[in-house]
Amino acid sequence: MQERSCALVVIGNEILSGKIHDTNTYFAARELRAIGVALKRIAVIPDELDAIAEEVRYCAQRFEFVITSGGVGPTHDDITIAGVAAALGRPVVIDPQLEALIREHFGDQPNKAGMKMAEVPQGAVLIEGGPMIFPTVQVENIYMLPGIPQLFEGKLTALKPRFATDPYFVRAIYTSAGEGRIAASLDACLERFPKLLLGSYPKIGNAEYRVKLTLESKDSDYLDSAFHYLLELLPADVIIKTE
Amino acid sequence: MQERSCALVVIGNEILSGKIHDTNTYFAARELRAIGVALKRIAVIPDELDAIAEEVRYCAQRFEFVITSGGVGPTHDDITIAGVAAALGRPVVIDPQLEALIREHFGDQPNKAGMKMAEVPQGAVLIEGGPMIFPTVQVENIYMLPGIPQLFEGKLTALKPRFATDPYFVRAIYTSAGEGRIAASLDACLERFPKLLLGSYPKIGNAEYRVKLTLESKDSDYLDSAFHYLLELLPADVIIKTE
User: Fold this and answer.
1) Which residues contact B104 (CB under 8 A, 6 or more apart)?
2) Distance (Å) of CA A62 to CA A5, A6, B103
3) What percentage of chain B has pLDDT greater than the value 90?
């Protein structure tokens, strides 16, 4: 199966200004990885129509699907729906099913803020599931999720079967040597195994190890061969443990 | 003084794949805010030359300055220098001062990995200060910082006086009502105080409050007037506390 590519667009002045510590991107990165989706880009942009439209358009054209986080509530700064509509050059319309849901909730006379929640980009479809009665709005390859972490996580979890493909296999090597001393071994390993995804992550002030190496592939035999080849290349005295 | 705008470009497959939980963006967002810099965009992109070049070029043209995080070490996946050089259409050259530093460290015969650390985009300048002997490389309005959190934080802290302008003033109101019930008050407040930056952040499963409202301005009198105006507009029984 072909790997699917994905981008995450986080809409939120509160994150850019450091008032809120975003956790949705880390959650999404791990969950998507686990189901074999390649997250290729994360963008955090302000609550501004043009910025949303430009970034969503860019991502929707380049990646198989796009997940947005935030800006779908009833307040003045919730303009994700309008931004996504602008990205696609479509109008914002009232969805009859959402309108019915809101009338059920607010009674027959919902206020202006409530009715805002019934707006969708023209051509949107609704996806049931997850922690709210309120469905996820999808239009083309764009899925609009709420920014509140509990809701974002629940909605993304509910969408996972729709996104899943084949997963990566991963091995890790922890070394006591710095990157300078092992860089040549890494280069040699990649020359022999060019399709290996090889990561090198130094940790400072850690008594346990200095560099964590991660090896990844969708082919478990290829990964195994590369893993043992690299173990041979590295100076034996620097290897602390493997996973 | 004019507000300065900034973008943060994080280079790292390890963050996109969820292997490392990025903390640099949250640190930078708070620190920049505190010195009056408007962080307008965060992009997390893979260790790929074209992706780095495109994103850095985009940001360098639109914002007053750009900070990159990651990809400046000695290993195969450290290609930020090459990416930034490509963004500006310049070659990568060896910086004599960095070369001297590295020869001091590795002896007269530094290995290939060590010499990689002496590479800079043509026209770069070096900025001393922070937690390493190794200086920060700057070219045009782009500052290239290491991705390891302790180093990133130290380097950014050392650069702060260079970026500082005038700060924002902030007030906060915590309410027991949901966004639906207070949205009209927020709209009315913004109509009277259009220059107010007004944020609304619902918290779920929190016994203390339901929505935190933040009011911001660089003009403390304007902020004070807007704050008291909004307090009058909100139903008295929903206000839990103010800051």
Assistant:
1) none
2) 9, 9, 44
3) 65
Q: Residue holding tokens 């949303």? A: A52
Of the partner residues B18, B44, B198, the one whose CB lies closest to the CB of residue A33: B18
pTM of the model: 0.75
* B8, B9, B44, B109, best to mutate vs chain A, most A CBs in 10 Å: B44
Give the tens place of pLDDT for each residue, A125-171.
Answer: 999 887 777 899 999 999 999 999 999 999 999 999 888 876 677 88
Of all residues in chain A, the one with the smallest CA distance to B194 is A76
Indicate if ipTM > 0.85. Answer: no
Please, what is the average pLDDT of chain B?
90
Q: Which domains does chain B have, with CATH numbers?
A: 4-163 (3.40.980.10), 169-242 (3.30.70.1130)
Residues of B in contact with A31 (CB under 8 A): 18
Q: Give the chain B residue whose CA is nearest to the CA of A9.
A: B43
For residue A148, give the nearest of B16, B21, B202 by CB distance: B202
Residue A42: closest CA among chain B residues belongs to which residue? B44
State the pLDDT at residue A1.
42
- Phi then psi dihedrals of residue B111, to 5 deg: -75, 175
Neighbours of B133 (CB within 10 A): 9
CB-CB neighbors (< 8 A) of A46 in chain B = 40-41
Q: A54-85: per-residue pLDDT in tens?
A: 999 999 999 999 999 999 988 878 999 999 99
* Inter-CA distances, A213 with A196, B13, B234, Å: 12, 13, 54
| Whole-number Å distance between alpha carbons of A125 and A50 | 23
